[in-house]
Each structure stands twice: as structure tokens, then as C-alpha cells.
Automatic annotation (TrEMBL):
<dbReference type="Pfam" id="PF13668">
    <property type="entry name" value="Ferritin_2"/>
</dbReference>
<protein>
    <submittedName>
        <fullName>Ferritin-like domain-containing protein</fullName>
    </submittedName>
</protein>
<dbReference type="InterPro" id="IPR009078">
    <property type="entry name" value="Ferritin-like_SF"/>
</dbReference>
<dbReference type="InterPro" id="IPR012347">
    <property type="entry name" value="Ferritin-like"/>
</dbReference>
Amino acid sequence: MNLYKILTDIEKTDPEVYEKLDSRREVFKHFAGFGKKLAVAAVPIAFGSMFMKAYGQTSGGLIGILNYALTLEYLEAEFYTMAVAKAPNGSSGFIPAGAPIGAITTIRDHENAHVNFLKTAITAAGGTPATKPTFDFTAGGAFADVMTNYQTFLAVAQAFEDTGVRAYKGQADKITDNNVLMAALQIHSVEARHAAHIRRMRSQKGWITGKDGGNMPAATQPIYDGEDNITQGGVNVSTLAGSSQNIGTEAFDEPLDMNAVLAIVDPFIV
């Protein structure tokens, strides 16, 4: 994904965007130095928050957020669609037959339903749905066997789902349109169910303890940083009756901010 080209194209459409948002130099500062770490899922939501600042809750701003959410769902839908196509009924040995291929097929269908819903919502709002990008699920070769090795596939799936859950949560307080917020929350909860199921398929706990993703590649650590927070609403929840350090982190999931998401996302979008 060429972030500079995206900003340049927006500038051509709206020359005043940097007066509404920030100077071009300051915007680029936000992107400087982001590493090529494991990524996905939330660049749509992250950009949504940035342009919310520029355009507020105008129809164009809302359509922009929905289109970026659509891009996120395109990515997940394409990931699972490709995987199921390579393992029809588990016959290839890539995804085992029975419950495993059944679960992945169901998640595929959920993600495609999200895509179709968002496209319909955007059209109904007078907008044009974004075109599906080209994806590289190997992240430039970092996960070269993602579509042939079942364990690699599941690890990347968990990374996608866990990132998406935190990214949706990270933008919830920035959406002031109740209808959009409700739709985002409805999708967010299903993504959380996906994340828990994928974690179980990897023989991991369905929840996150501290900032341990659960036997994940080292490059995915940014997805889990901050999950060890034990202060909620000014209260140290680990000190409450019946609680502990681990329970305090497991009982509350944390949002993921824009800069963290952008550092995670880039390698999977061409």
C-alpha cells in the first residue's frame, strides 16, 4: 500500500484537506518509520479516524469510514475465500476435513456477508463502494507458506482477527453517528467470536493473558502490546476481590490506536 499516493490523490480531490487536517509534512511524520511487521485489518478504520478529524460527521466522512471498513472486510473475506478454495472439503490436506474446514468456511461466509452489507450501506448512503485492493497474504514472503501450511494459516488468521477486534474498538469513541456505531459494534462482536474460535483451533485460550498472543510469531507482538493494562476507569482491577494480575488483563480487552495499527498493516496490502 502506497500511503503517500493515497494522500496525494486525496489532496488532488480536495486541495484544502491539509487545512482541515494538518500540514502535509506533519501528516507524513505520522507515517515515517513504520516497520514491516505482521499486519492487517485495520488500516481502513485507522484512516477513518484521521479523516474524521478533517471532515467530521458529514455524509462524505461517514462514507469514507464505511469504505475503509469495507477494505478491512475485503481483506478478511479474500483470505478465507482463498484458503477454502485451496482445500475443498479438506481433500488437499491443507485444512483438515470435518470441523476445521467447516469452521473456516463459516468464517468465510460471515466475512463475505460483512462485505455485502457494507457495500449496500455505502450505496444506500449515496456513496460508491471502494474497489477491492490486491492482497499479499505472505506479507512479502514473511509467511510464504500461509496457503499451504495449516499452522501458519491459523497464526495469520489469529493475527488478522485479533488486530481487527482491537482496531474496531479503537475507533468506537470517534463515531458519533448512532447507526454507524451500531453497525460497527455488530461486526466487532462477530470478529471477536472469530478470534476466539481461531485461537481454540490453535489449542490456545480463547482470551488474551497479559500481552501474550499465545504461541504467535515474534513479528506479531505489536498486536498484543498494551493488553497487559490493569487500570480500568482509574481502578486497578487486579486488586479487586477475586481478581489477580492475569484475571485483570483477561477480563478487559484494549483498543489499538491508529499509529499501532498502521505499523501492523502495511505488508498485506499491495
